[in-house]
Amino acid sequence: MALLAGVSAEYYERLERGRTKNPSASVLDSIARVLQLNAAERDHLFALASPSQRKPVHRSSPRLRPGLQQALDLLTDVPALILGSRHDLIAINDLGAAFYVGFDGLPKGQRNMVRYLFTVEAARELYDDWAGTARKVVAELRLYAGTHHHDPKLAELVGDLAVRDPDFRQWWAEHDVYLREHGSKRYHHPIVGDLELGYEAMTPVGEPDLVFGTHTVEPKSPSAEALALLAHWSTTTSRERDGDSSASSIPDIADPGSTT
């Protein structure tokens, strides 16, 4: 490894054990090249090797500017949410609240996507590939830890989940890192059945600690029809809960193929 990276074996051993301060960017680039690291893994390597450059911990809860809240609320056809540090939930649209079954059951101070995946049974049933999704989310949290290792809320979250869930404990110990951008997933929703949705993860301009996540869906597809049915069910249920006598009847939700 040292030979391929162009450094002495002694220097590489000191670097690997954390006994070398502030290694040069050229050395880290060489190591990243030899290890064939992707962009997220390379950034993680630089963060671990250069602790003085790690980001400061933001202890205050981020305030969502009105424009972002309005942009979220305008998305009525797909589930969407805004996450902060450690995957804490900052805001979610109405359809997102209906889609992520059981999220609202978490106490307000613990509404976090990682905690949701590992502590809410409905989350395990919602994702067709729960293990693959949960493992990637742990790797995303590990990437955050590389630049925020002194975050007390991170330590609290990791400690709690490590005690409660063996899968989290195992995957956290593997030290994998992952940067989510876009993709697709399959779901099984208890109200509307099977769906296949895309997702996009974006960082709003001027808000580096936030992630604006939105699902996408193929127009006129069965998944689009299922989301429309879920939106109708959510709106009607909300009106009935608020005592609105004008709430219209809904189709038989036991049949995901029924139409409005």
Walk me through what this model shows:
By secondary structure, this protein is an alpha+beta fold. The chain has 2 domains: 2-53, no CATH class; 66-240, Beta-Lactamase (2-Layer Sandwich). Helix content is 47%, strand content 12%. A 5-stranded antiparallel sheet has the order 2-1-5-4-3. Helix 3 (25-35) crosses helix 4 (39-49) and helix 9 (130-147) packs across helix 11. Residues 245-260 have low confidence and may be disordered.
In short:
The protein contains 12 helices and 5 strands.
Could you give the topology of this structure?
Blueprint: H1 2-5, H2 9-16, H3 25-35, H4 39-49, H5 66-74, E1 80-83, E2 89-92, H6 94-99, H7 113-119, H8 121-126, H9 130-147, H10 152-164, H11 166-173, E3 182-189, E4 193-202, E5 211-216, H12 222-241
Antiparallel strand pairs: 1-2, 1-5, 3-4, 4-5
